[in-house]
Amino acid sequence: MIVLAFTIGCICALGWSGAQSETPDQEGMPCDEPTRVLGVPVSLVLVASDGSQVSDRIDRATGRGGFSHCYLDVGHVLPNGRRMVVDYQPGIGVHYAEAAGYDKRKRATVRILGDVGEQLYGCIRGKLGQPFNAAGMLVGRTTIATCAGLVWSCLPPKLRCAMGGPGRPISPNDMAEFFGAKVGATVDYRGGE
User: Fold this and answer.
1) How far apart, in whole angstroms, are the C-alpha atoms of residue 80 and residue 121?
2) Residue 159 DSSP SS3
3) Could you tell me the residue range of the domain that residue 157 belongs to?
4) Is the residue at 40 inside a domain?
5) So what's the pLDDT on residue 3?
6) Is 117 within a domain?
């Protein structure tokens, strides 16, 4: 846990090398509000480690499942046609990011279908603009301290309880294990609330 907290602290101090956000306005939101394409399922995208030191440290510290980041994709598109996702990163917080920033990274996709997916999307959308909570890394999984923690905090209580917990902030590897997602796979989750 100390290694994970140290790694996140370094990320905050040095900046993040993940997808870059769209040019923001004063509140850190894209200047153009993306619209949602109808019929696109709510998808939790688990991003594989890219081989960088930070990415590999996150993976090693959280179970060595191969994942180091996650974001939510619900088919947001800007007027210029660029795809956007809801992301959570050190130094930026909860924001829209350009999906193309992750196109070269391997991933697993968990399509969260039905009411659970729509509730997840509504909750996370309501958190847009919230800052990153680096202090939460030392508190545990009840705070939104990681990208996976943001997703976890918006899941129905029964689903959060079913995930159990490693006694540290939840990680993309924990999400992958729970949903049975492997790099390169797409998994449909239809579970109840």
Assistant:
1) 23
2) helix
3) 2-19+34-189
4) yes
5) 46
6) yes
Instruction: Fill in the amino acid letter for 60.
Output: R
User: Does residue 9 belong to any structural domain of this protein?
Assistant: yes
49 domain-assigned: yes
pTM beyond 0.70, yes or no: yes
Question: E strand or H helix at 161, and its extent?
Answer: helix 157-163
Please check the confidence at residue 120 and state whether its pLDDT lies above 90. yes
Write the DSSP assignment of 82-127 as a string of letters.
Answer: -EEEEEEETTTEEEEEEGGGGTTS-EEEEEE-HHHHHHHHHHHHTT
pLDDT surpassing 80 at residue 193: no
Please give the Cα distance from 62 to 57 (Å, whole number): 8
Q: Does 30 score more than 90 pLDDT?
A: no
Q: Categorize the per-residue pLDDT at 124 as very low, low, confident or very high, splitting at 50, 70 and 90.
A: very high
- In the chain, how many domains are there? 1
Q: What angle do CA 109, 123, 141 make, to 5 degrees?
A: 75
Number of neighbouring beta carbons within 10 Å of residue 176: 25
Dihedral pair phi/psi, residue 110, rounded to 5°:
-110, 105
Nearest to 152 by CA among 136, 105, 135, 5: 136
Measuring CA to CA, which residue among 38, 30, 182 is closest to residue 118?
A: 38
